[in-house]
Amino acid sequence: MRNWTEDGIAFGADYNPEQWPEQVRCEDLELMREAGVTLVSVGIFSWGLLEPEPGRYDFGWLDRVLDDLHGAGIGVDLATATASPPAWMSQRWPEVLPVDHDGRRHTFGSRQSWCPSSPVYRERSLALVEALATRYGSHPALRLWHISNELGCHNARCYCDVSAAAFREWLQRRYSGVDALNDAWATAFWSQHYTSFDQVQVPALSSSFPNPAHALDFARFSSDELLGQHLAEQAVLRRVTPDVPTTTNFMVSAGQTAMDYGRWAREQDVVSNDHYLVHALGDPRAELAFAADMTRGVAGGPWLLMEHSTSAVNWQPVNVAKAPGEMLRDSLAHVARGADGVMFFQWRASSGGAEQWHSGMVPHAGRDSDRFREVVELGAVLQRLADVRGSDVEADVAVLVDYQNAWALEAPTLPSARVGHLDVAHQVHRLLCERQTTADVVAVGAHPDDLAEVLARYRVVVVPTLYLCDDATAAAVTAAAEAGAQVVVTYLSGTVDERVRVRLGGYPGAFRDLLGVRVEEFHPLLEGVGTALDDGSTGEVWSERATVAADVEVLASYGDGAVAGSPALTRRALPGGGAAWYVGTTLDDEALDGLLQAVCAAGGVAPAAPATGFVDVVRRRDATTGRSWLFALNHGEETATVRVSGVDAVSGADVDGTLHLAPGASAVVAETPRP
Known about the structure:
There is one protein chain. This protein is α/β, with parallel strands linked by helices and about 675 residues long. About 30% of the residues lie in helices and about 20% in strands. The protein is built from 18 helices and 27 strands. Strand 16 and strand 17 (about 540) form a beta hairpin. The model has no long low-confidence stretch (mean pLDDT about 95).
């Protein structure tokens, strides 16, 4: 299969020359060479230009673009252009437009306005893919096929009649008959019993709460429908151009859980991700690190950063510009955590359209700007990091997550709406990063058959609020603990099975025997209400009444309220040297940090390198050559120090034992081999 990265870290952006007069392309190519651009994504939102009316294609402008890029030595990630259908489609076939949860049909005028179940959309999109693959499959600039764009970004779930019919077909494939569906959904409650699949509707706006199992299956179906579109396009591309790898850009981030990327990643030749800092979050760069580690987790190795921003975006209430050095630091943070390519949206900032205020590699100010000079600097740094490509990220800790668990926690009838699937996961990951300890974020869906084998690689496994947990996942976690790992399970985990049925007999059902903890009743906490623990720490969000087995060590108990005296933190030693730890509340940062330090010490997990200050430290290592690179990114306001020796690819300076890193600065040290 064709090599999409050529011989180093890919560098580039979405390139949209169709937005500009043709003469601008000459300047674009000159500036791309100056910046060291090696790969650009082309044609992502160009369906309306490529097929101005059904069945009539106009490829002349795209021919010239690809020829010019190849002449400049720049590779192309060519999009199938199916992300946004042209105006003629919804005018001729209005049923293609999606319907929202409240029954409102979308109108044409934005992007991704199509129903994932629409047979008309599927037919027309595949015809375009076939035409593109036939015309450009042998073009020398082509490195990679870019299927659609951010699938599900604005149309993740459609509630139209076409979707309802497709949902019923999906259910018939999933269940042996309507009786099996009734059993899985517990339809005896609220008189929801079905006698035929034809009676099943999509869980749209109704008079009261939806059936949680019904809603969960619809979320599964919706993810599968979008994946089905990806696979249909991929099948055409593989038939016509079997040597060209394919990808589609994921949106692994704090707010995007609509698609099961663990499941999707298994179908990718190259896993790629789009990521943007969200400044409404308390710590946007902690979320960046989590998202990058999660992308690596679903990919199982190196991946491609398809989009991020040189500076401000256009879609937040206040679009914060990046200070000097931030773009370099953000880019290297992704490379540190496994990215083998750094790309942006977009090459040249648009002068018009909905994203005209989104930053670009070439800003509105043009070449003579600090932003473009930073772009050139980044390109030079990435060229010096060419040998990093393909290397692995060292991590001895796994944080277990599951997209289907996130869907289950969307239900409006849970014990507490204050519990989010990734809340504790983010806190754990952030505190580990602050201790220079790298974690893989492992998605359950990426490992349907080998999760136990994957978890066996880690010394510490954290299971945060895994509310929905099937037997296989519980068995894999238990096996890791019994094999010697330190396993940390937090509250609400293992509570329901894959049908969202409560595991009876006491919580946390799936992990009760492993932990030696039996919770009788949940006592969730109101906003602003905390619970004191007898070790001096404080819990929030959650508390519970529990008992423990005789061989369980109680590390802390609740000191007040209705559950006073009940165990809150426990540890159970296992014969193989491992241990099962339980956390029954949301600990404050200081307490959770102390607990994680104790867990890591017990598991023999050490920081990537000793450091002071608020510095992110991650190591990538080439398993074949043994070469290693230590990434050090100072997010703090004071100079940090890191114990390392080698040559810094950012500054070019020799580092003899101690790296001094100024506030906001970045370093990537090619480490001196150990004697």
